[in-house]
What we know:
Layout (H helix, E strand, L loop, with lengths): L2 H13 L5 H7 L4 H4 L4 H22 L3 H14 L4 E4 L7 E4 L5 H20 L4 E3 L8 E3 L12 H21 L1
Antiparallel strand pairs: 1-2, 3-4
Amino acid sequence: MDFIRYAEAAASLLNADLSEVGGLTACLHDRPRLQERATDRDCMLLRRLQRELRPVFDAGTAGDVAGVTDGLNALLARHPITPQLSDHDGQGLHLHVATGVGVAEQLVGESILGLAMLVCDLGADRLGVCSSAPCTNVFVDASPNRSRRYCSDRCSSRANVAAYRARRRAVAQT
Length: 174
């Protein structure tokens, strides 16, 4: 199990518009077998996950380790996960969330397990909310120096340009 990939996929799910199946299939662009099985029911269940996971990312941004761990522990209790060993892709043994369940159940399991492993291995402060107003997207900070503050290069650039323009205005007014 590549827990960083699963954790980043959880952030993508949180940022996705899951009001209809098209939004879910767009989020699953690299997983065609899940795309073809996605239903309205999956979208409904994943919207619930969005509501449940958001406070975990908010707690990560605030540096609230207890909020992150309590939130993830509550999700682990509510959504039992069955990991299985797999060697299907020639990458050696690794963990997968048990298949044979619905799309939403699989994505919930992968998301929660990925985030839990990430928090255990890298820390609760690796979960964040974009610092660029008015963006509210979440992200997983896998950077070596824990420096990520934005959900994307686009938001980072927008914030940097706004700061530059504000400095230029301040200089012009003096």
